[in-house]
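Supplementary Text 2. Reproducibility record for the structural model of the 273-residue chain.

All settings were left at their defaults, and a single model was retained for analysis rather than an ensemble. We include the record here because the model underlies the residue-level annotations in Supplementary Table 4.
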Amino acid sequence: MPIRLHTVDAFTDRAFSGNPAAVCLLDTVVEAGWMQQVAAEMNLSETAFLFRRRCEVPTAFDLRWFTPKVEVDLCGHATLASAHVLWATGELALDEPARFHTRSGLLTSRRVGELIELDFPANPPAPLPDAARMLEALGAALGVVPVSLHRGGSDLLVELAEAAQVAALVPDLRALAAVEARGVMVTAPGAEGVDFVSRFFAPRVGVDEDPVTGSAHCALAPFWAARLGRETLRARQLSARGGALEVEVRGARVLLRGAAVSVLRGELLVSLD
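Retained model, structure tokens:
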């Protein structure tokens, strides 16, 4: 059987913007080493691998995500891309939700008008105690003085004073790769209809800068919801490709909404051996 492969631009309504993810539709369980090789070949920030669960509700899938270097526990844009592919290919009816069994538990997705909504676990960031030394190191790596530093799960959240500072960052990626975190999200208040902005750097796991990072917003959403006193916010990631999200904090969960555009479909001309 051919191995179906799609590329989708996520968190955007225009091709060649947002965050591109590869989505591999599998008919059988495969070894992690094979998936890692495919992800390295695709050389995108994440490649998603989908396998329909047998003897369960027909909307249930196993989902795993790989960067070019490692498997990750949670990925937003590749999950959004996976749901988009399931609806676009007819694997799921447009009114059916997608149910993904992952290393971060059960994640669900549904269509909301023209957008796709992801139901993810919230990851409220906590201030780092005795963070002066790390603040100094991150300030040197980023070339700007941070306002505050927090940890959200396996990532660091660095707050800056202005959106213009986030947009202008040219970080020292080698220095950031030495930081003990999956990635470093840099954020500031937004402007012109956007509540907050961000960028995300993860050279430690093979992604110098992620164009739009859904999983980071599991921390960014509760962080800014507490600051701004509102549960629903508009966000923009200021990478070169750029992308937009709507986020909503609901207790221990975060809803992430965005659009997606298919840009490629094909077949892998390799065996599963």
